[in-house]
Amino acid sequence: MTTEQTPPVPGPKPLRADARRNRARLLEVAEAVFAEQGTGASTEEVARRANVGIATVFRHFPTKEALLEAVLIRRLEQLAEEGRRLLAESGPTEALFALFDLIVEASPVKNAFAAALADAGVDVGAAAAEAGHALHAVLSELLSGAQRAGAVRKDLEVPELIAILVGTARMLEHLDGHPASAARARAVVRDGLRPPVAG
Amino acid sequence: MTTEQTPPVPGPKPLRADARRNRARLLEVAEAVFAEQGTGASTEEVARRANVGIATVFRHFPTKEALLEAVLIRRLEQLAEEGRRLLAESGPTEALFALFDLIVEASPVKNAFAAALADAGVDVGAAAAEAGHALHAVLSELLSGAQRAGAVRKDLEVPELIAILVGTARMLEHLDGHPASAARARAVVRDGLRPPVAG
Amino acid sequence: MTTEQTPPVPGPKPLRADARRNRARLLEVAEAVFAEQGTGASTEEVARRANVGIATVFRHFPTKEALLEAVLIRRLEQLAEEGRRLLAESGPTEALFALFDLIVEASPVKNAFAAALADAGVDVGAAAAEAGHALHAVLSELLSGAQRAGAVRKDLEVPELIAILVGTARMLEHLDGHPASAARARAVVRDGLRPPVAG
Amino acid sequence: MTTEQTPPVPGPKPLRADARRNRARLLEVAEAVFAEQGTGASTEEVARRANVGIATVFRHFPTKEALLEAVLIRRLEQLAEEGRRLLAESGPTEALFALFDLIVEASPVKNAFAAALADAGVDVGAAAAEAGHALHAVLSELLSGAQRAGAVRKDLEVPELIAILVGTARMLEHLDGHPASAARARAVVRDGLRPPVAG
DNA sequence: AATGAATGAGCGTTCATTCAT
DNA sequence: TATGAATGAACGCTCATTCAT
Q1: Residues D92 and D113 grouped into a single domain
Q2: How many Å apart are CA A2 and CA D193, to the nearest integer?
Q3: What are the pLDDT digits (tens) for D53-109?
Q4: How many domains does chain B have?
């Protein structure tokens, strides 16, 4: 059921081969650049590192904000995909915590970027919303599975789970280079997610 | 105890009365402006809102980064001060959690600012480090007190406590406008800070 | 008489049928686009509206200026043609004034375009000059006919007639939407063209 | 009555001496530059020729359009002023025709600029409208005086007079370098403005 | 021959910082 | 000393033109 039977919807044009390559490279480079330097990094820097002219960036993404959004979407999609994969491979509890680690441990710079993205008004457009919903759905499935298994407190819902993810990422970013502290900080969150002990 | 007995270290000049007033107002205004508009807000905007010329800002703070750092220092000092006050008024456990809430609930925009500050390379200079150490000292006292009282897990140290503060602030910022979710998210952190139940 | 007996001069290549169609469509579209949006309109816009690739435009017209010039030439040729037709149908006086109206009343935007064209350095190339000469010839015939008929002041020559046309077009463009004023403005020019009353 | 008793209205701040000089120079230079190269001339070019940094231009005129509008206003004001002066010195008929010549003979490039300004959407703001009204008032006085004196056709109103001015300027611009033709073209307009001969 | 992706110079505009008043 | 005008590097973005498919 995970194999997608993409029906032949025409869509917004079947990009030429080289253009597709450039677009993909741009997204990759942009993610790296924004992660390293924050969203204030110049579009020119992205172009330079992708070895394309500045106009090529703007051909693919009509504004800088569109580029940021595209990077965000890509990341959301990757995470949702990963979540689905993990769920297929193991039980929901393991999958949930594995995904949690994946998100939270992604090189801090990546999270810095994600955070900044959220910070900025980036009124996520329809596409980003859609990607967000997909991730939301996966998280929902993982969460309720883990709750049924008694591994996670029952009162938790997806919105705060996401917030906890974001916050934990931030937390660990702050402890980059101090693995012992990071481990303890993570234990705090992990234990807090457990169902509270009766009594 | 609040009256500071500034010892007669020569220091960086004994600022004239009006200049001191200007400096104070600038810091206040700057914090508000950066909170509202992010650290990208223009220095001119700060000057305008403080009713001083732009050059006056640069006389007091030679670069924009210096201004940002000064705001950060002020905030750190205020928090340390607050911590000391709370400790004087109640037991360490109550004081710790009260300070936690104070920091974490400060209007999200302020945290956005703090976060951005941390994000940016702002290699906190000596002064900021000093203010940080003061806060660190207070937190240390509060933490060990609360640990002795059995209210907080024993393995926690100050660095991760700070990181948890930052992360939680971020978390709650993400849940601004969703108080029920925010309450649950906070419960997660709070419970995670408790000593783990003996199994 | 309208069927052109193009003599077999080698000329600039005998364009394939579809290419000829493309070229014609491009000119038509370009005139419309430049009329609507001014000569600053982008070449891409022309291509888009003509349903051709941008490169096709540049294949037919090696620079944007060449395209503008081609549009101008087309317009000059049409006017000359129209003048010849009018002269064949009626006396020179009627024909002259009819052509005058035709030129001058062409939708203001078209004149805006023509004016802009003239404004810009567009050092009309040889082809444009040729088209200009053709129009010049027709106007000359009309003018001298009308002068012989006593309908137009004798001292007038073609160069100033053209200037008067351009100026009047500009004048009426300025009065677009104010028909009463436009009528009075035109009366001024019309009366000024008449032979001055003796006495 | 012409001596203005400017009351001490505070206005939008009493510009510093050097700033005033710069502002004036910028307007002068901008008029020249836009006249020579059209309104498409770059703001940088204006700055360069005025020997100021680009930011100085934008400090004085927050957008390029504002600069264009300021130049237009200045021109309108100069013309109105000139009209008033002429009227004070001689009868309305002489004054009207003198002003006519002044406007129409201004170096063609200036008219090219004025025309372009009008062409562009330049939705003249309030200030420009005001300046326009002032000129309108002067022209109205001149026109009705000349009409009463029997020197100009009675049916003419100010709007078309302005249009005729614009059109004539365009006309003469087109004949730059051909004085004989220009003289004849102007005679056409001049004669057309006269009251039509009875009979 | 036709396409459209890629290019880079150039534009309008902003902002931290310096300088003249 | 405080002011605010001046500065120029940098940014996001556009467009005529070229190149690979």
Answers
A1: yes
A2: 84
A3: 999 999 999 999 999 989 988 888 888 999 999 999 999 999 999 999 888 876 555
A4: 2
Contacts of A116 (CB under 8 A, 6+ apart): A34, A38, A39, B119
C121: three-class secondary structure by DSSP: coil
Position C166 scores a pLDDT of 86
Q: For residue B197, say whether its CB is under 7 Å from any atom of strand E.
A: no
Mean pLDDT, residues C98-125:
62
Distance B136 CA to E3 C1' (A): 65
- Is any atom of strand F within 7 angstroms of residue A62's beta carbon? yes
Query: In degrees, to the nearest 5, what angle opens at C-alpha A135 toward C-alphas A129 and A138?
Result: 145
Indicate the SS3 state at residue C79.
Answer: helix
Q: Are C195 and C153 in contact (CB under 8 A)?
A: yes
D3 part of a folded domain: no
CB B64 within 8 A of CB B43: yes
Distance (Å, whole) CA D67 – CA D75:
12
Do B99 and B178 share a domain, yes or no? yes
Same domain, B77 and B129: yes
Q: Which two tokens stand for residue A91?
A: 């039980």
Chain C residues touching residue D169 (CB < 8 angstroms)? 167
A-B CB pairs within 8 A amount to 117
Q: How far is the CA of A47 from the C1' of F11 (A)?
A: 14
CA A146 to chain centre: 21
Task: For residue D31, give its domain range.
Answer: 16-62
Per-residue pLDDT reduced to its tens digit, A68-102: 989 988 888 888 999 999 999 999 999 999 999 88
Q: Which two tokens stand for residue D14?
A: 């009493």
D109 within a domain of the structure (yes/no)? yes
Give partners of B (≥3 CB pairs < 8 A): A
- Are residues C131 and C181 located together in one domain of the fold? yes
Which pLDDT tens digit goes with each residue over A99-152?
A: 998 888 765 555 554 554 454 444 566 777 788 888 889 999 999 999 999 999
DSSP code, position C41: S
CB A108 within 8 A of CB A173: yes
- Cβ D14 to strand E below 7 Å: no
Residue D199 inside a domain? The answer is no
**Nucleic strand F under 7 Å from the C-beta of C44:** yes
CATH code for the domain in which residue D23 is found: 1.10.10.60
Same domain, yes or no, for D58 and D119? no
A144: domain CATH number? 1.10.357.10
Of the candidates C38, C167, C181, the beta carbon closest to that of D170 is on C167
* pLDDT confidence band for C103 (50 / 70 / 90): confident
Would you call C119 and D38 a contact, using CB atoms and an 8 Å cutoff?
Answer: yes
D86 and D155: one domain?
Answer: yes
Same domain, D26 and D121: no
pLDDT, tens only, B110-160: 555 455 445 444 455 677 778 888 888 999 999 999 999 999 999 999 999
**Statement: the CB of D62 is under 7 Å from strand E:** yes
Distance of CA B129 to the CA centre of its chain: 13
| Domain termination site, one of D28, D62, D96 | D62
The Å distance, CA of C184 to C1' of E1, is 54
Together in a domain, B29 and B95? no
Which positions in chain C have a beta carbon within 8 angstroms of at least one beta carbon in chain D?
38, 40, 112, 115-116, 118-120, 153, 155-157, 159-160, 162-164, 166-172, 174-175, 178, 181-182, 184-185, 187-193, 196-197
Q: CA(C45)–C1'(F18) in Å? A: 18
Q: How far is the CA of D43 from the C1' of E6 (A)?
A: 28
Best to test chain C binding among D139, D188, D190 (most C CBs inside 10 Å): D188
The DSSP letter of residue A81 is: H
The answer to whether A120 CB sits below 7 Å from nucleic acid chain F is no
Place of tokens 């009065």: C175
Confidence band of A9 (pLDDT split at 50, 70, 90): low
Is B198 domain-assigned? Answer: no
Of these ranges, C107-111, C120-124, D155-159, the one predicted with the greatest mean pLDDT is D155-159
Question: What distance in Å separates residue A192's CA from the closest CA in chain B?
Answer: 4
